[in-house]
Amino acid sequence: MNGIQIVADQDVWRSGFEDRVLAGYRAAGCSEPLARALLERAVEGIDGWTVATDGTGWIAVGVTEDNGATVGRIHDLTVPEGRAWAERWCAEHGARRVEVRLTGGAGAFADYPVRGQIRMRAAAERPELPSGLTVRRLTEEEYPGWYAGEEAAYIADIVRAGALTPEKARAKSDQDFARYLPQGYLTPGHAFYVFEAEGRAVGTGWVNHGFLPGVTFGFSLEVYEEHRGKGYGRAAMAVGEWATRQGGDEAMMFNVFGGNDTAMRLYDSTGFAVLDEFRSVVL
């Protein structure tokens, strides 16, 4: 790996990198506006990345502070056997954990544990709710209890994925809920639902319309534990599609944490493809 050198002029690499990222999103079925919006997210902070080459390909790395920890990120890797150099660079810059964002397969990072996935699928043009299921808006009076349950579940998901300790997961939860719901129940663009069967509430949904061009983001489509295993998971997906079209969007997107194999199998079977995958390893 001695032939790898850091480059000062990143223009050639950057142009090729952005083209590859766009191509990956287009291949995943994203519209052009959506692909470009996702590219903007993928290159956030790019001016601070370090880029290196061995003459045959590229490595792009960086470090950032995340909930009080220094985290290394491998943003690009097309150098054969270049992972060791990238990991060493991250370690030398204080990182104790290295993360990657992947589109189109794990590649050289198949041994990195999956911490999360972004899944997406086009919603049916006229989605119908399953027979026997009704949907209503969550009331403002129900919101505090719903919020407490969502926060507890979110913290548990983060910890189960192996990404953070319980204390840091709680801090991240506080930050994320404050960012996405700054006005709580009345936050514009957000809708909260309760779905019921046989006169009983069996789950809830939280979506954000217009999250990205043409996309409704499903922050939560939750079936209550006592009603799991009864087919309501698929029903929750149908509610998400219905809500997507209610909000005027064309596709539904959501995150699933690593370690939630049951949910991943459900999403595979209902056609929600992996758009981005996030993996990480402790150095």
From TrEMBL:
InterPro entries reported for this sequence: Acyl_CoA_acyltransferase (IPR016181), GNAT_dom (IPR000182)
N-terminal signal peptide: none
Domain N-acetyltransferase, first and last residues per copy: 133-283
Pfam families: Acetyltransf_1
Domain of life: Bacteria
Residue runs in coiled coils: none
Organism encoding this protein: Streptomyces virginiae (Streptomyces cinnamonensis)
Protein name from the UniProt record: GNAT family N-acetyltransferase
